[in-house]
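Dear colleague,

Thank you for sharing your sequence with our group. We've completed the structure prediction you requested, and as agreed, I am returning the results in plain text so they can be pasted directly into your records. Please verify that the sequence below matches your submission; if there's any discrepancy, let me know and we will rerun it promptly.
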Amino acid sequence: MRIPIETFRLDNGLLVTLSEDHTAPIVAVNLWYHVGSANERVGRTGFAHLFEHMLFQGSANVAANEHFELVQRAGGTLNGSTWLDRTNYFETLPSNQLALALWLEADRMGALLPAMTQQKLDTQRDVVKNERRWSVDNQPYGTWWERLPALAYPPDHPFHHSLIGSMEDLTAASLEDVEHFFATFYTPDNAVLSIAGDFDPSEARELVRRYFGPIPRGGRKPPLPDMSLPDRFGRWLRTTVPDEVMVPRLFLAFRSPVFGSEEYYSASVASAILGVGKGSRVQRILVREREVASEATGFTFDLSKGADLLVLDVTGRPEVSGDAIEGAVGDLVDDLRTNGVSREEVERAIALVETAFVTSMQSAGERADKLSMFATYFGDPSLINDQVDRYRAVTAEQVTQFARARLGEDNRASLLYVPASAARSGVVEARAAAEVVS
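Please find the predicted C-alpha cells below.
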C-alpha cells in the first residue's frame, strides 16, 4: 500500500505533513519535537521527560489539565511520550474537532512560558519523581531501560544517561533552567506536525497557518556532540544486578546499524528471526524445546544517530540460573552465526514486519506518528512508502552476513538480573568478566 502524503513548511520552519484517509470519521494530530534525553546537559538530566508533563499544565490561554479535559470532552484521546532523541504529543479526535487539536498544540508551543510557575514545576517534578519510584526504582527489572544504555554507550555519549533523569538532577532543576530548555527546543523550526485521517487538506492548511504561523522561529539549537561509535563494543560487556525478583532475566544487546541505513533492514530482519513471534528462535528453542525460558523476545531501539541497539530479552524459569540463561542465549546466537538463516526464516520475518506495518497504517494515530518519525529523523516523510520494499529486498545471505559481522562475542553487552536471595546465598557464581552492581 502507498500512503498519500502532502508536505509544506511554514515561514517559521515548521514542517507539516498531511495524509488524507476518509475510511473513518477520525483525525489524528501528531507533533514531534526533535529533542530527547540526548539533548540534556550534565547535571540537568530528565528535562525532556519532565517537559512531557509540563506541557499538559496549561498555557496563557489554557488552564492546567484543561488540555486533557477539552480533548476528552470532544470525544478524543491524547498523550505524549519521550525517547532518547525525540518527544511527541498526539491527539485522535472526531474529524470535526481538528481545529481544537491544532489550536491546543499551537497554544502551548507559542504561549506556555507565560503560564509556567514555580508551583507547577514543583508539582510536576514530584510527579516525575514518583513515576521513577514506581516504574523504575521499585519495579522488578525496572531499571533495565536506564542500565542497558549506560552499559552499551560510553559515559560521554548522549545516549548513556537515564531518560527519566536522576533524583538529584530533578531536585536541582530551577524555573530558569526549565524556561531556557523550552525556549531552546520547543520551537516551530525544531518540530514536525503530522495530520492523518478524515480531513479536508485545504482546511487543514489554513488552520495550521492560522494557529502556528504567528509563532516565531527559535534561536540556534545547540548541536549534539559527535555521536559516532565503532561497529562493535570490542569485547563482551557484562553487568549483573542482584534484584528483588523471583527469576533471572537477561537483556543481551548488540551494537547495530542506525535506523534507516541500508544495513539496518538486515539487522531488523535478524531481530525478528531471533525474537519476534512464536516462530522465532528464542521462542521455539529456549521456551518450547529446551524449556529454560518462560518469555523471550527481540527488538531494536530504532535510533537514527550514533549506533542502534538490537536486544534479546529473555526471562528464565525459576530452576534455571542466570549464567545458564546467558549461556543458552549465547549458544543460540552462535548457532545462527555459524549456520546462517534460511530463506524461509527471512520470508517469515519479512511477512511479520509487513503485516504489522500495513495494519498500523490503518490507524490514523499510528500513521501520523510514523510520518512524524521519518520527517523528524530524515526530513522526508515519504520514506514511509519505501519501507516494505526495503524489507522485501533483504536476503538470507545479507542477514547471515550481518549476524557473522555484528553478533559475535566482541559485540555483546549482557545486563543480567538475578534473584538477590540467590546472590546472597552464593548460588550465583562470580563471572570473571562481570561487574556486579549492588
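Summary note from our side: The radius of gyration is 23 Å.

Kind regards,
the structure core
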